[in-house]
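Quarterly update from the structural biology core.
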Amino acid sequence: MANFAVLPPEINSLLMFSGAGSAPMLEAAAAWDGLASELGSAATSFSTITSGLAGQAWQGPASRAMAAAAAPYSGWLSAAAAQASGAAGQARAVVSAFEAARAATVQPLMVELNRNSLVQMVMSNWFGLNAPAIAQLEGDYEAMWAQDVAAMVGYHGGVSAAAAQLAPAQTLQDILAALPNIGIGNKGNANLGNGNTGVANLGSGNTGNNNIGGGNGFAGVTANGNIGSGNQGNGNIGFGNGSNPALGTDAGHNVGFGNAGSNNWGFGNAGDGNRGIGNSGNNNIGGGNAGNNNVGGGNTGSNDIGFGLTGNNEIGIGNTYFNTATNQFSLGGLNSGSGNIGIGNSGTGNIGFFNSGSGNVGFLSTGTNTHFPGQLNSFGFGNAGAGNIGFGNAGDWNFGFGNSSNVNTGFGNSGGLDTGFGNGGAFNTGFWNSGNVNTGWGDSGSINTGAWNSGLVNTGFGFTTDTGASQSGFNNSGTNVSGFNNTGTSGFVSGLFNTVIGGGAISGIGNTGVPTFTPVFRGSDSGFFNTGTDLAGFFSLARLLAG
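Predicted structure, tokenized:
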């Protein structure tokens, strides 16, 4: 935008006398005053309540610790109230500067009158008789120009002075970052809970900032702004939403559970932008769609409306459809795949409804058993992964629901090979762990036995230090082991009474990992009393999916 010093009075005067005027800034000042009053009342109330508790009903070391931790919060509220009050005062100063500048600005009508008079004098200037009048009008115009510029200079100076008096927003953020934690085992500041690594988390076992819930993040990889538990990525609402390394996705901003993609509403979606359940494609409305931009269920094609469609741009069910691209109508069965029992299946060998995968028993599943081709794939519904027993799993070989990673027993796990719920980390037995290989709950550190530990390889509660040991817990052998009575050789083990051989990973109770000749399967299990590899659940029941 051009500098006001070079703008003619026609523009400067018009700008000053048009628009909303000072009313919006007066409203802003009133709003800042209201905020200052509310913050001041909150600070007074908070201080009164905490001092009353500490002085009467609640005595002892815990009371003194609470009072010491609460004092900075009261101070922050008071500082915020003072800054809001200052902002209100500066807003009123801007109003005063604006009103003074407008009073000093030439009225637009006077500028227009000057210009119109000049035109009339020039048009009737016979033999130069109007030259003195023309010169007078030009002189008046230059004076108007100078008057407007002077008014704008004063306005600019007043606004700049008011802005300079405002406390920068970063100051409040610095105050927040310096607030102490309320809880044990936290690394960072302003956490309300236990075992967090980060800032301003409400809950336990989070790695990241501004999370409400537990176990968000993954072993040093932060997750921020989540509401729920066991989420990886940012801005998720729900639990078990996370990045799935096998799918190469980076999850975030999901609403629901067990989504491995981004911007999904629902559960068990492995793609992005879906509204529904068990979709492995993108931007679908419905469930069990392997294609993109579908409305319905069990479609492997794209841009379809209906169920069990394998082509693109089709409306219908199975092999009975109308193709909107070719304007052709097809009359066939209600399944477009082969060997299906049910309706609306576009895959092969399904029993149920609207499955686009193969070998599924249930409905709205897109997975296919790639580890053991030709065998059953999953039992349940809305599973986008392979080999699941349950519902809403975007990962593979899970027993439970809402798991976005692989070989979990439980619900809402995004880490992988977890037994429990709400774990963002991997190889955990318990809940709300964002670290790895923990036996317990609320640990953002790794290889801990206990709860609320942000350090590494600790046995107990609320430790923030790193011991440098290779195992935690009791009666364990091997390295990278937590829990009780576990045996591991070159693997990762958490839980109780587990045995792993050959570099596998186990969580849960009473499992024995048996490696196979295939390097991918190294004797990794989760759950309870399983013997084998890639098993989740109880008593090796997942073998049913391996034939």
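The two ends are 73 Å apart (CA to CA).
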